Amino acid sequence: MQDLKGDLSVLDKPVAGNNGVSLISAMHDIQEKYSYLPEEVLRELAAETDTPLIEIYRIATFYKHFSLTPKGKHRIVSCTGTACHVRGIEVVNTEVSRLLGVEPGSTTADGKYSLETVNCLGACALAPLVVIDGEYYGNMTASRIRKIIRKHDKKTEKTACSCSSSAK
Amino acid sequence: MINMILNGLEISVEKGTTLLETANFYGIEIPTLCHDEGLSSYGACRLCLVEVGPPGRSWLVSSCTYPAREGLVVRTHTRRIARARRMLIELYLATCPSSKTIQDLACQFQVTAVRFRQRHDDCILCGLCVRMCDEQMQAKAIGLVDRGADRRVATPFDKKSEQCRLCGGCQYICPACQARCQGPQEENPICNACLNLAPPCLEEYEDAMCYMDPCVACELKGNN
């Protein structure tokens, strides 16, 4: 675990106090840096902006995008919108869960993948749709997702051995 | 001053008054669960519904958040309101039957059956404790977190808050905290004991001074 004691250096600009809009953008920056919202950093943010901590906690729990638990190195996002649902995202989700051994909404034990579901990605023509690290994979089937994850596994092993060490 | 019509009566109130305050000022009682005089209006419980607008084209609004307006026609005790209110009480009973306040309301409005799946929650999300903590105690130790079906009152990170001074204001104001007289019985979500209660005071003691406020038995018999 990194030492997060009051580290607000991630913010590219100082946040103006007691203003929901700038708070949220500050929290975006924090989440981008740490892949989640660490408690210590949020406490520091509350002190810095003179905002009650409960207000920040309220925002952090309200928006689905924010996470209070560490996320994996790679994000697998599957769409559960109407079009994707009709075209069989359930089968794909079950397959991903089986492959990685975790339920949607959680992270694998080695911190490599985190599995998420969203309500709609707005690309219904590509249904059923899965996004891995920002890359869109449309017309997904159980057998295709298996291949893609295997390929992704190999690629990331080659390029970044650091991922396993930094995710610890 | 604003002139408006309340239950067919021409009245005038100061600008900025809510309909609930207006009705209370003129002695009309409107039940609420989420309103308190010292706190800001929230409009969560919807029990304070009143009917606004001309007959036939009227709509229901929560009176605690609706400001008085010039020429407004307001009715506070119509059949439509009574029906909506009894439905709300029924829903509250289905959520949180262990609360004395809600059981009293059920008696007062003669809600005798719950048609919904029974739950045994300890919170109705009225937000009174959160506003009490924020506005009166200036602590901001608790708040409503999460959303949708998971919405709940909590402290930051569900740990003991540093802002909390253990003043007890949240418990004092909570309408769901006070346990009902008989104690919660899982098999019996509605108490309704007060419905069958005759007011003995007036029959036995001629000059009785009753400090039970509100005494549901008296209210039901119209002896208040």
Give a description of the structure.
- The complex is a heterodimer of chains A (168) and B (224).
- By secondary structure, chain A is α+β, with helices and mostly antiparallel strands.
- Chain A is elongated, with a radius of gyration of 18 Å.
- In chain A, helix 1 (20-34) packs antiparallel against helix 2.
- Chain A has seven helices and four strands, in the order H-H-H-E-H-H-E-E-E-H-H.
- In chain A, strands 2-1-3-4 form a four-stranded mixed β-sheet, covered by helices on one side.
- The mean pLDDT of chain B is 87.
- Chain B has helices spanning 19-25, 79-95, 100-108, 128-136, 169-173, 200-204, 216-221, and strands at residues 2-6, 9-13, 49-52, 59-62, 73-75, 143-145, 152-154.
- Chain B is globular, with a radius of gyration of 19 Å.
- Chain B contains seven helices and seven strands.
- In chain B, helix 2 runs antiparallel to helix 3.
- The interface between A and B is medium-sized, with 11 and 15 residues.
Structure characteristics:
heterodimer, A: alpha+beta, Arc Repressor Mutant, subunit A, Glutaredoxin, 2 domains, 7 helices, 45% helix, 11% strand, B: 224 residues, Ubiquitin-like (UB roll), Alpha-Beta Plaits, two-stranded antiparallel sheet, 7 strands, globular
